[in-house]
Design goal:
Keywords: Hydrolase, Isopeptide bond, Magnesium, Metal-binding, Repeat, Ubl conjugation, WD repeat. The protein has 20 helices and 56 strands. By secondary structure, it is an alpha+beta fold. Strand 27 and strand 28 form a beta hairpin.
């Protein structure tokens, strides 16, 4: 009989001499004309579908294929195989839709080029270093982190490394490619930052309740941590928010609705003290505090919201302060500190704010209950009770997924707040809603531009930037119309700030990127092209070897010998990452029902699962050689990953996912568990599956795969090494449908590499038990492959579309009698299940189809298989463990080098320089006066005019400082605030083309009893009886200007005593 096509394909790939006729484990045995001949004829019938041809295989160049000795121990034979690529079978249907590999390039094709100030650090590297917030000055970018603050100088943005490196110290993990920065001495966690350009100070609020100051203009020395300046105990609880008012006072918000004011007069006096008097300075500030909750509490009743004050915003247009909790606002007069209004997200006024209910612990009555229906006098049998338990568990999972449970989180909460350049207040909500408010707290309009939660807002000129939980950034105009948008990060954008001609974005992983303030613009395409042409300069390549092990353990436990045979040191000596997927770790209706119930409240894992993790870890020497990075268990399914310690710095960002495919697609006896890792900055997903059983359930298996592939959604694991996530909910079929094209692709489709393993349960069809046994005994695997359901379905493009698998050259791994060694151990019981390759490993990398590509930034992950075998000597289960060794070539970007190339292009490209220069354009404006004279409570009005026919301008009025009694040493208040006796309105706003705005300047009367605190007059009222002089600065910028123009107005006030 002629060799079938599989053998021809293998022979064509191999350049070794003709095969000898002796028996080899991984090769075809010579055919005999004995009793097996009729069965071979039966394989030639018309009922054979999916017969292979040469096009089914992806050809890697192979010098030779090692011939191995005879024997049933595949694991031992595999050690003799060379570390060269094996021929592969490629499924049809890839390259389209969700089965198309993600587009990769040296520069992202759909977003503007950016400056990587701090490239995405691995999450595991951020212990104590995770950045929580950022703030920008004219010359610096400040970041608040878990152990203090750090600062980047814009002048050093394109310099490689950090000061620790230049000082000869080891670079902090996670900052290897960050721009040069300086770090403060260790402090409590920084929660909020505030910039004060007037006195060159950055203020920070901390978890320990303190407020600290940091000088902008201090000398930062290489390798030495800089120290805080003035600090004081502002609250007993964490300082959640800060702002500086129209009059230069610092307002701080804390838990329980507490708001405190720290008047500028006390701050000014304390800042003037020496280092030795620092303790006295803190005391002075703490004594000057004004507690707003105490101030507005009358007869024990307080109208202030009692929720945590997460946002404080100074409305410098109208001299007001906004405070926001998650669903309520309070509006304050910045001068009198009077509570003007309390209202909710709907704009409804709340005269009395009740204390919000605390998070209640789940009581017994709130637990998910399973109802087993049946008559008491006729108890059901065991099978019926098991079915009822499973149905009850499935219903519980569905109800929680649909929102019927008690764990549903309110989706309409305030997540961001800011004031636009035209004076409109914007708030963003967790349901994607954006709300406009006028200065009096009236709701003007609301709209949604993206279906996910708003995380951050930022304004500059006519542009509003919105950061979302998806990592997207959108640009809106002042009316809320969508201008542009792009995917800025792969995690939520939690902070946006503008500085130095750029928009800086911070993601939850701690990465910081800078975007040109005009993007998207014409310079983007030029930059993208120029940087792409220099890709070779910043491309780095690494090799990684991954071992995938899969085993259906049939509720058993492996011996030490079995684990060593499967994953011992000889098997993983050259492996960097080991991923193990187990099926049927634990079964039974009671266990499955309990597992489903535990998942609904965020609990998972089992003692049996932990046993497997511990014993596999011992086999891998996880204390000395490997480190367990994480794991995830869904009922009977368990997946875990170990990484060699020498490779660990380049592997992290563990995310987990589960998809149940059992009863009602809610029970975890069938389904998938997944892990996602970032390896050398490339995303690799590992999915362990157990698909539907039985020979005839092909369509159900196909549907299970499709359900897993399309619905598996990864989320952050709360686990450290070896501890699974406790907050990953079961993914069911009741998930929200994506609402926009950018959300339509599943998580698995966006990975650079996806590896499926598990008991896929595809069987051999059109063949009898005896025929299969005979072919196995002859090692006639080429004929058996033609009867493989999975191969036939893949060829038809019905499942695992576009995925690859090494050609099967080991015996079927199912079904065996437990404890019976050798190939004679196949099921010989009453059912005589036909042997099958149920246990498989398949993958998809960045290649498309059978094309051969070199590893590059356009095709960054290329894999090949050097080993694919089964451990036939292991007898603890009715399945044999399978393992597959993949060799990966990974291309990634050296962000520090690319940042330097970015700088060179900015300096040398004339078109880009010209475009940047255009951003400095500011329309001409005029101010009607340069001198204002006031007496007593006079009011003076002047005009700011925009004569441009097409450009709008934005103005802002600040106070450079007060010179009492002609004192030449004018000094500004905090944030160029105004003295309390002066009211300017509006102090900021928008002027349309050929329009003008009237600005009113009014002297306020302050020497009243109401302005006394604690029996002593505040210092400002004494100013009322003096002649005063100050300088007002009118700052004007264009709609997207990076520069400003200023007009100075001198204001003099003469105090004339009453007659």
């Amino acid at each position: 009989m002629n060799d079938p096509p599989d053998v021809k394909a293998v022979d064509e790939i191999s350049h070794s001499p003709p095969r000898p006729k002796s028996q080899f484990y991984s090769q075809q045995l010579p055919k005999t004309s004995g009793s097996h001949h009729p069965r071979n004829h039966s394989l030639d019938g018309a009922d054979i579908i999916g017969a292979s041809d040469e096009e089914d295989f992806y050809r890697y160049p192979v010098n030779h294929m090692m011939e191995t000795g005879d024997g049933a121990d595949a694991c031992e034979d595999a050690q003799m195989l060379p570390n060269e690529p094996l021929p592969e079978f490629v499924g049809s249907g890839g390259g389209v839709g969700v089965f198309k590999a993600p587009i990769r390039a040296a520069m992202h094709p759909t977003r503007p080029p950016c400056i990587e100030i701090r490239p995405h650090p691995l999450r595991e590297s951020q212990d104590g270093k995770l950045i929580k917030t950022i703030a920008s000055t004219d010359t610096q970018l400040w970041a608040g982190q878990e152990t203090g603050v750090r600062v980047w100088k814009y002048s050093d943005t394109f310099e490689p490394g950090s000061v620790t490196e230049t000082a000869g110290r080891r670079l902090p993990r996670g900052d290897e490619e960050a721009a040069m920065f300086h770090e403060s001495a260790s402090t409590s966690q920084t929660l909020c930052l505030m910039v004060d350009e007037a006195i060159k100070m950055v203020w920070s609020g901390h978890k320990d309740g303190k407020v600290r100051s940091w000088k902008m203009d201090q000398q930062f020395t290489d390798g030495n941590a800089f120290k805080e300046g003035l600090s004081w105990q502002a609250h007993k609880t964490p300082v959640l928010s800060m702002t500086m008012s129209f009059y230069g006072d610092i307002w701080t918000g804390a838990e329980g609705g507490n708001i405190r004011i720290w008047p500028w007069e006390g701050l000014e006096k304390s800042l003037g003290l020496t280092q030795e008097e620092r303790r006295m300075a803190a005391v002075l500030i703490e004594r000057s505090v004004i507690d707003l909750r105490a101030q507005v509490t009358i007869n024990g009743v307080c109208n202030m919201p009692s929720s945590d004050v997460k946002y404080l915003l100074s409305d410098n247009v109208r001299a007001k302060v906004w405070a926001a909790a998650t669903q309520t606002f309070s509006l304050w007069n910045a001068r009198t500190r009077e509570l003007l209004k309390v209202f909710n997200l709907e704009g409804q006024i709340e005269n009395r704010v009740d204390t919000p209910s605390q998070d209640q612990p789940v009581e017994d009555g709130d637990n998910v209950k399973f109802v087993f229906k049946g008559k008491k006098d006729k108890p059901h049998g065991f099978l019926q009770r098991s079915l009822n338990a499973l149905i009850g568990a499935a219903d519980a999972v569905r109800r929680v997924a649909k929102g019927a449970g008690t764990l549903v989180e309110d989706t309409k909460k305030i997540k961001a707040m800011m004031i636009a350049a035209d004076g409109v207040i914007w708030t963003g909500c967790s349901n994607g809603l954006i709300i406009h408010w006028d200065g009096n707290g009236n709701r003007v309009q609301d709209f949604t531009r993206h279906a996910t939660a708003v995380q951050s807002l930022c304004s500059h000129g006519s542009r509003i930037w919105v950061g979302y939980a998806t990592g997207n950034i959108q640009i809106l105009d002042l009316e809320g119309n969508l201008v542009a948008g792009w995917v800025a990060h792969n995690e939520p954008v939690i902070k946006l700030v503008v500085g130095h001609g750029h928009l800086f974005s911070l993601a939850t992983h701690g990465g910081v990127r800078g975007w040109n303030i005009s993007s998207p613009a014409t310079i983007d395409s030029t930059l993208r092209q120029q940087l792409s042409e220099r890709a070779d300069m910043y491309t780095r390549r690494d090799k990684v070897t991954i071992m995938i092990g899969t085993w259906n353990v049939s509720q058993g436990r492996a011996s030490e010998t079995a684990l060593k045979s499967w994953l011992g040191s000889s098997a993983v000596s050259d492996v960097d990452i080991v991923v193990v997927g187990l099926q049927e770790v634990e079964m039974g209706a009671g266990f499955l029902a309990m597992s489903a119930a535990r998942e609904t409240v965020g609990l998972e894992g089992s003692a049996v699962g932990q046993w497997w993790l511990d014993h596999i870890g011992n086999t891998l020497n996880e204390r000395t050689v490997f480190e367990r990075v994480g794991s995830r268990q869904l009922a009977a399914l368990l997946i875990a990953v170990w990484v060699r310690k020498t490779v660990r710095p380049h592997v992290g960002d563990l995310d987990v996912a589960v998809v149940a495919c059992g009863l009602g697609r809610a029970i975890g006896n069938k389904g998938g568990v997944g892990l996602r890792l970032r390896v050398h900055d490339r995303l690799i997903c590992f999915v362990n599956c157990h698909l539907a059983a039985h020979l005839e359930a092909v369509n159900k298996r196909n549907a299970d795969f499709d359900h897993i592939f399309r619905t598996m959604t990864f989320s952050r694991s709360s686990a450290a090494a070896g501890v699974s996530s406790a907050n990953q909910a079961v993914k069911t079929s009741n998930q929200t449908t994506p609402t926009s094209p950018e959300e339509a692709r599943p998580d698995l489709a966006e990975a650079d590499m996806v590896i499926f393993n598990g008991d896929l349960n595809y069987r051999l069809f059109g063949i009898s038990y005896d025929e299969a046994r005979d072919l196995v005994s002859q090692r006639s695997f080429d004929w058996l492959r033609q009867k493989d359901q999975l191969r036939a379905e893949m060829k038809a493009g019905k499942v695992f579309q576009g995925m690859r698998e090494a050609i099967l050259m080991f015996p079927p791994t199912y079904k065996f009698e437990i404890g019976k060694p050798g190939l004679g151990g196949y099921d010989s019981g009453e059912k005589k299940r036909i042997p099958a390759w149920c246990d498989r490993v398949l993958y998809r990398d960045n290649k498309e189809g059978t094309t051969t590509k070199e590893c590059s930034l356009d095709c960054p992950v290329i894999a090949s298989i050097s080993q694919y075998d089964a451990c036939m000597d292991v007898v603890e289960s009715d399945h044999k463990p399978v393992r597959c060794k993949l060799n990966l070539d990974i291309a990634h970007v050296d962000k520090a080098v690319r940042r330097q190339e970015f700088a060179k292009i900015l300096v040398t490209n004339e078109d880009i320089r010209s475009s940047i220069e255009e951003l400095r354009f500011i329309p001409d404006t005029s101010v009607s006066t340069d001198t204002i004279e006031l007496q007593n409570q006079d009011t003076f009005c002047f005009k700011i005019t925009n004569p441009s026919h097409e450009h709008c301008v934005f103005f802002k009025i600040a106070c450079l400082g007060l010179c009492a009694n002609a004192d030449p040493n004018c000094r500004p208040r905090g944030s160029f605030g105004f003295p309390r006796w002066l009211h300017v309105a509006p102090a900021a706003g928008l002027i349309q083309p050929e329009q003008e705005v009237d600005v009113s300047v009014h002297h306020e009367e302050l020497h009243k009893l109401e302005d006394l605190t604690g029996g002593a007059a505040q210092s400002w009222w004494a100013e009322d009886g003096k002649d005063k002089e100050l300088t007002l600065v009118v700052t004007v910028r264009g709609s997207c200007s990076t520069d400003v123009k200023t007009h100075r107005v001198t204001l003099r006030h003469r105090s004339i005593p009453p007659r």
